[in-house]
Write a structure and sequence with these properties.
single chain; alpha+beta; 5-stranded antiparallel sheet; cell membrane; transport; transmembrane helix
């Protein structure tokens, strides 16, 4: 019975530290495996770029502007984005797309209304 609090602390440590670290590592590996030349990415610091070269296993060359190629560490890639013209994934079965309906503009100011009278 004296080991129960210690066991709870170990379980809390695993749940709060180890499991989220594993999830982050798995996500980073998926991001690294999705890298290919021409893929748009987001770099650490918010730089939007396109992969221009993958020659070195530790670094990545990205094009940040036409003709401007910069070398980053691969770990600096935080997100692989969809290409600009790409359609998002397929719709789920039974899912419908509803176009937004624009409501007519209303003028709630006092004054000439539909009757032409001033309040």
């Amino acid at each position: 019975m004296e080991l129960f609090p210690l066991l709870l602390l170990v379980l809390a440590f695993v749940a709060l530290v180890v499991l989220p670290a594993r999830a982050r590592k798995r996500q980073q590996n998926q991001t690294q495996s999705a890298l290919a030349i021409g893929v748009p990415v987001t770099m650490a610091g918010g730089v939007y770029a396109t992969v221009a070269g993958l020659d070195d296993p530790a670094t990545i060359q990205v094009e940040v502007a036409p003709g401007v190629v910069v070398t980053y560490a691969r770990q600096a890639v935080i997100q692989v984005r969809q290409p600009a013209g790409a359609v998002p994934g397929p719709l789920a079965t039974g899912e419908t797309v509803v176009e937004p309906v624009e409501e007519p503009l209303r003028d709630d100011r006092p004054g000439d209304g539909p009757s032409g009278k001033t309040l």
